[in-house]
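Database export, one record per block. Field names are fixed; values are copied verbatim from the stored entry.
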Amino acid sequence: MAVAREATPVESAEDVKQADLDSEDLLQIYRTMLITRGIEERGHILYRQGKIPGSFYTGRGNEAASVGVATAMHADDVGTPIQRDMGVHVARGTEPWRIFAQYMGREDGLAAGRDGNVHMADIRLGLVAMVSHLPALMPVAVGCALAFQIRREPRVAVAWSGDGAMARGDAHEAMNFAAVRRLPVVFIVDNNQYAYSTPNRLEFAIDHLADRAAAYGFEGVVIDGTDVLTVYREAHAAIEKARAGGGPTLLELVTLRMEGHAVHDDAFYVPREKLEEWSRKDPIERYRRWLKQTGVLSESGDDEITVEVKKLLNDAMKRADESRLPDPDALETGVYAEPDELDTPHHR
């Protein structure tokens, strides 16, 4: 029996008004979703051209989930996005050309060529870089939230993870500690229904992952992760509750991973009928229809935004391709800190 609350969809313009979004906000969300998908589509091209070393991961189908949550965060908040959350980087202000440079291991990438692919983030934008062991990011976000509480700063940490990560001890320890201390943190689960090739039915025996929140003593909410406005509304409410001292919330954003775990995986284990069903719920097409039905977006306005985004991304690819590969002699630069650079009592 499900115990988490299931979010009702945002449908009317009045619902949007109550969510404190104006027309420009709505169009910016649309633009961000298009940029997010465009970056990953062009990343595929770069990978096929042999310009991206290693493997390549995308979040097609997850654009509404990532953009909706990131739009609800304040500039001073911090987050730990994972490999399906390109929309978080874009919404927080990471320039697309630096993401392409990161993909290609170039000097202007976010890791300056010292790491590749999706292991990236800009700490100046309040983002902590991903590690492959995704549940290990949750205690990091909880630690940030503890620091905010101790310093009495009105800031919130957002901890992202996937459905597979929820089976690890790190996840349980992070959520329990956050609940006991009533920390300003929001837990986001990108439930794309497969932990690599393992379906939900073989991952857990409850209806929803958000049901687990009750065991820790806070609220869990199940949200259609293809509905960007509902994601925004619920994320905004959870973030502001945390900021006001109301403690954590667990938001389960249900999507379907529309491609393999990475480009080397053809996802043969996902039934074709399931992919066809969820393709009809494509988050960008769904939001585009809503914008047009409510009169926020006209046909000509849509064309204008599409052309604008295409030019932005093509220029970004060109600029990134002109970025140099890092100098091998600078291999250790920025990797280790000197004691004089550390401003902690232990190192003074």
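Remark 1: The first helix runs from residue 13 to 18.
Remark 2: The beta strands are 5-6, 78-80, 157-162, 185-191, 194-195, 198-199, 219-224, 249-254.
End of record.
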